[in-house]
Amino acid sequence: MQFFARLLIALGVCVVLVGFLLLAFAHIPLFGKLPGDIHFQFKNVHVFLPLASCLILSLVLTIIINIFLR
């Protein structure tokens, strides 16, 4: 029973951290507006594919994780 309680607490902390990160990404000026980001707009359909932003974010996170794990 204690395992499930700790698991739920850890999941709750992760959800809160992801929420804070989503709020922080809204204030980054170039995130989502890079030249490789694709945005389609039709009559009632809006499609946004942040390809360049995701690639840069992945690169930065990979470098940070490699620095801390070595």
Residue fraction in strands: 5-15%
Shape: extended
What strand line-up does the widest sheet have? Answer: 1-2
Determine the N-to-C terminus distance. Answer: 35 Å
Q: Can you tell me the number of structural domains? A: 2
Main beta-sheet annotation: 2 strands, antiparallel
Percent helix among the residues? 55-70%
Structural class: mainly alpha
> Which regions contain 5 or more consecutive residues with pLDDT less than 50?
none
SSE string: HEEH
What value does the average pLDDT take?
85
Query: How many beta strands in the DSSP annotation?
Result: 2
Radius of gyration: 17 Å
DSSP helical segment count: 2
Question: Topology of this structure?
Answer:
Elements: H1 2-25, E1 38-41, E2 46-49, H2 51-69
Antiparallel strand pairs: 1-2
Structure description:
A hairpin with a 4-residue loop joins strand 1 (about 40) and strand 2. A two-stranded antiparallel ribbon has the order 1-2. The chain folds into two domains: about 1-30; about 30-70. It has about 70 residues and is mainly alpha-helical. The protein contains two helices and two strands.
Outline of this structure?
The chain is mainly alpha-helical and 70 residues long. Helix content is 61%, strand content 11%. The chain has a two-stranded antiparallel ribbon.
